[in-house]
């Protein structure tokens, strides 16, 4: 089987699995789990075969004319370079782990067949984006992912939080997709083709007439899909969905698509200095803001969600300084340890019976009860904090090294201001990342007090997946010396200056957080959660997925009722309240967009009911009244008719005389 044929099967198999799962889910429930796991597993194996055959060498291209569309045709094209094959392998491995994990996590969920089919369709759409060599075909996968995310985030549709989060994710990402589509059409109009290779050739030859405008339009879609400021607010709320969905979205699909898209078309963005500066500002604000917000969250999944936003900021920062090798390296590395963190969080939530770090900090013995999650998550958090020798250290150092290179003026065509901005924000975010990673680890695994209620042993499938993802989390960074073959041959070796600075920042952040926790640990042991807190043991335990779906953070609104024993609150001080609320960006959007839209809707309803309907009712009432008057005049009495005619004649005669005299 040729490499091209093998590559075609990679996105096709999960799609066929999704189709078969939807058609047979209710009729043959015994086939649901095999149809969920096996096609995705086969796609992952084939993606590994494609990556092995490609070997980091020259890109493999294949295309067939899909449909004639006039001057700009659409091709069903494949483009297999080192970036594509590695990202596809990441998607396949993470999706397989998520499907395997879900067989245990949602084993009692009656909607599991549709859930598994949507996960397979989600995976197929992302693989289509990764392998596609044509922008319109890429756009198909891009939009399918948005639809799948709506249904998967809203899986627990019985809860208001899930319904609101799914709608918000759909609307915010679609808000960015509108200019994104306009940008693709404008780009194809300038280049004369939707083929990515043709577009890059046009960029190189100066055939793009409006690079800045097109790049900014495309960045709007990237900001929405990859949850970058200011369109990042949907991602933390998307935690209302099942934990495996969170792992899939945050590690391998959806949010990775925007970064990958910019990496594929980086020469286009590099042709506009303004676009690079905008990208650098967006990355810097995203990194620092999300790091502060993560320090103030009580829900363990929201901490990881803001962490994802920040790590995506590192990737867009690497792109802003013109280094797509560092960006995609961090994308792959982050995908491995972030999937492990989310799936490990699912095990923690199941064992503790709550999402709340405040509640976990008041229970003991959690680390002993879930040793698999404890050890694997410890390594994953070290990778997140970029502590050597774990994978996150090497990939994050590649980003910071690229920023240092641009800041020193050695990167041709890259503004030095963008380099300094990304470098400064990256070092500050390294400190914040280590701080919130340490806070999560201490509050989840080093809680004081009585142990939480035992909700049963975690299924073997869930623990097995953690150890599968543990391997790339531990070893991927050590293979950095080989990865440049897949990444344009660029160097991914950490530089001494940024390595020392970022590791020092990380150790400082972890040390400060540990000191703060030591001061608050005793307070947590003797301070109840408070009047607004929910005791996770108060409600009877029902089923695993229902418990995970309905348990909320101990403080429903931690901004209004902060935990005095939270070390994050101690460090942030007055800033904690604002950071916990995401710096009130949702309130700003509500004031700028939601309220005016609702006011316009109320005005339209008023005009429709009170003006338009009044006119319509009047238009019908006037003929009815006239008809009623005419009907009353038709009495059938001849004398009445003659009297009326005589009276009318008299009136007309008198009027004629008066008119004649007046004339």
UniProtKB/TrEMBL annotation:
Residues 68-115 form the NADH-Ubiquinone oxidoreductase (complex I) chain 5 N-terminal domain. Its EC number is 1.6.5.-. Residues 132-403 form the NADH:quinone oxidoreductase/Mrp antiporter transmembrane domain. One of its GO terms (biological process) is ATP synthesis coupled electron transport. It comes from the Bacteria. GO terms for molecular function: NADH dehydrogenase (ubiquinone) activity; NADH dehydrogenase activity. Keywords: Membrane, Oxidoreductase, Transmembrane, Transmembrane helix. It is found in: Endomembrane system; Membrane. Pfam families: Proton_antipo_M, Proton_antipo_N. GO terms for cellular component: endomembrane system; membrane. It is a multi-pass membrane protein. The chain crosses the membrane at residues 6-23, 35-52, 83-102, 114-131, 137-157, 169-188, 208-224, 245-263, 269-296, 303-321, 341-361, 373-394, 414-437, 465-484, 496-517, 641-660. InterPro entries: NADHpl_OxRdtase_5_subgr, ND/Mrp_TM, NU5C-like, Proton_antipo_N. This is NADH-quinone oxidoreductase subunit L. It comes from Streptomyces klenkii. The lineage of its organism: Bacteria, Bacillati, Actinomycetota, Actinomycetes, Kitasatosporales.
């Amino acid at each position: 089987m040729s490499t091209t044929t093998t590559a075609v099967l990679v996105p096709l198999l999960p799609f066929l699995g999704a189709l078969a799962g939807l058609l047979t889910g209710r009729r043959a429930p015994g086939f649901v789990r095999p149809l969920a796991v096996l096609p995705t597993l086969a796609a992952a194996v084939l993606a590994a075969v494609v990556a092995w055959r490609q070997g980091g060498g020259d890109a493999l291209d294949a295309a067939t004319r899909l449909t004639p569309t006039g001057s700009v045709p659409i091709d069903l094209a494949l483009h297999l370079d080192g970036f594509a094959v590695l990202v596809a392998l990441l998607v396949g491995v993470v999706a397989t782990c998520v499907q395997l994990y879900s067989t245990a996590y949602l084993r009692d969920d009656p909607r599991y067949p549709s859930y598994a089919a949507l996960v397979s369709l989600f995976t197929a759409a992302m693989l289509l984006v990764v392998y596609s060599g044509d922008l319109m075909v890429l756009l198909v996968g891009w939009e399918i992912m948005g639809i799948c995310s709506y249904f998967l985030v809203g899986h627990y549709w019985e809860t208001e939080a899930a319904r609101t989060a799914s709608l918000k994710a759909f609307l915010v990402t679609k808000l960015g997709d509108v200019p994104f589509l306009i940008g693709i059409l404008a780009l194809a109009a300038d280049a004369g083709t939707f083929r990515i290779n043709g577009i890059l050739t046009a960029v190189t030859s100066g055939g793009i007439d409006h690079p800045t405008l097109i790049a900014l339009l495309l960045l709007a879609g990237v900001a929405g899909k990859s949850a970058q400021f200011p369109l990042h607010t949907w991602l933390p709320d998307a935690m209302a969905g099942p934990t495996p969905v969170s792992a899939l979205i945050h590690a391998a699909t959806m949010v990775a698509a925007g970064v990958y898209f910019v990496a594929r078309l980086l020469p286009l963005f590099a042709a506009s200095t303004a676009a690079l500066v905008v990208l650098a500002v967006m990355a810097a604000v995203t990194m620092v803001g999300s790091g502060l917000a993560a320090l103030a969250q009580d829900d363990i999944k929201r901490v990881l969600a803001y962490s994802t936003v920040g790590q995506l900021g590192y990737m867009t920062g690497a792109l802003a300084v013109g280094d797509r090798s560092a960006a995609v390296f961090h994308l792959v590395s982050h995908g491995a340890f972030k999937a492990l963190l989310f799936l490990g969080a699912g095990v923690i939530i199941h064992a503790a019976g709550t999402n709340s770090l405040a509640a976990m900090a008041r229970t003991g013995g959690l680390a002993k009860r879930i040793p698999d999650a404890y050890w694997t998550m410890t390594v994953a958090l070290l990778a997140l904090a970029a502590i050597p020798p774990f994978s996150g250290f090497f990939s994050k150092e590649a980003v910071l090294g690229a920023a240092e290179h641009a800041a020193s003026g050695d990167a041709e065509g890259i503004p030095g201001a963008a380099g300094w901005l990304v470098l400064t924000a990256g070092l500050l975010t390294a400190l914040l990342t280590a701080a919130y990673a340490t806070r999560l680890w201490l509050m989840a695994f080093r809680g004081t007090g009585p142990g939480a209620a035992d909700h049963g042993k975690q299924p073997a499938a869930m623990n097995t997946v953690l150890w599968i993802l543990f391997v790339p989390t531990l070893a991927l960074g050590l293979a950095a010396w080989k990865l440049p073959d897949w990444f344009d041959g660029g160097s991914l070796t950490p530089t001494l200056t940024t390595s020392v600075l970022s590791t020092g920042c990380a150790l400082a952040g972890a040390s400060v957080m540990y000191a703060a926790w030591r001061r608050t640990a005793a307070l947590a042991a003797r301070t109840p959660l408070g009047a607004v807190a929910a005791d996770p043991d108060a409600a009877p335990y029902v089923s695993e997925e229902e418990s995970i779906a309905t348990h909320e953070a101990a403080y429903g609104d931690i901004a209004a009722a902060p935990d005095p024993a939270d070390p994050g609150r101690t460090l942030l001080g007055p800033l904690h309240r604002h950071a916990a609320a995401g710096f009130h960006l949702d309130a700003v959007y509500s004031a700028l967009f939601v309220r005016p839209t609702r006011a316009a809707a109320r005005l339209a309803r008023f005009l429709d009911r009170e003006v338009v309907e009044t006119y319509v009712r009047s238009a019908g009432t006037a003929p009815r009244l006239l008809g009623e008057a005419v009907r009353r005049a038709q009495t059938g009495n001849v004398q009445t008719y003659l009297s009326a005619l005589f009276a009318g004649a008299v009136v007309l005669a008198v009027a004629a005389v008066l008119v004649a005299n007046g004339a």
